[in-house]
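Database export, one record per block. Field names are fixed; values are copied verbatim from the stored entry.
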Amino acid sequence: MEATRRTTMTEQTAPHGSGGASTPAKRARVRIPHLQAMKDRGETWSMLTSYDMYTAQIFDEAGIPVLLVGDSASNNVYGYESSLPVTVDELLPLVRAVSRSVSRALVLADLPFGSYQESPEQAFRTAARFMKEAGAHAVKLEGGLEMVPQVEKLTRNGIPVMAHIGFTPQSEHQLGGYRVQGRDDAADTLLEEAKALDAAGAFGMVLEMVPAAAARRITEAVSVPTVGIGAGTDCDAQVLVWQDMMGLRTERMPRFVKQYADLATVMTDAAHAFATDVAQGTFPAEEHSF
């Protein structure tokens, strides 16, 4: 797809034409047909993670069309070392907080490790909880050909599914750690997985840590939007973990992360200033007292 055809969702907020799905007006709810229509028109869009009320409200107001309550909450909220330990019961309140706090964004809930791999029936039961109990608009699951039955089961029963292929963090031990997937001949396998998930009814798919050339082939071959994270410039959308792109997390960042702020420094300075004011007796002042 030619780069010159691409615009962003925030640049294009007025409906296109009178027929079919179109990009929603500024405060209209983002629906899956809007995302598909943007791919069809060559418009790129953004996705960020969100796990709480305030980030959900800020990102929604900023025009981010899709908010992912990711299993990345495991190591960005709960303090686990990886995404594997987080449970359904730990993620449900986070999804509920985000879905209650947005007026426009589509809220996408990650299905955590162990909650959907066993069978399509298990996947349906888990996904139904996120839809019924937490107000999610769609769910995301990881895996390739082995996940086709799960995707078919969910979509047949009214649950929109975003697939996730390439590097799949829930399989990090099997994959040998954080490694780029789809190099050389493996790109053909990845392409076949993408086509199968497209045919199974997925409304989109995340491509994580995939060579740009392979991601381009997939984006051109499938009918639904691709969402890149470390997958080059030709995907239909891009996603980042908000703590990474805002500079709240201070560890070494993956190559694909661009930091747009330095919240860690801002918050450290503010906390230090507060502690100093309290220690010196300058807070609370008279104006802060009743």
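Remark 1: Residues 263-280 form the longest helix (18 residues).
Remark 2: Residues 1-8, 10-25 have pLDDT under 50 and may be disordered.
End of record.
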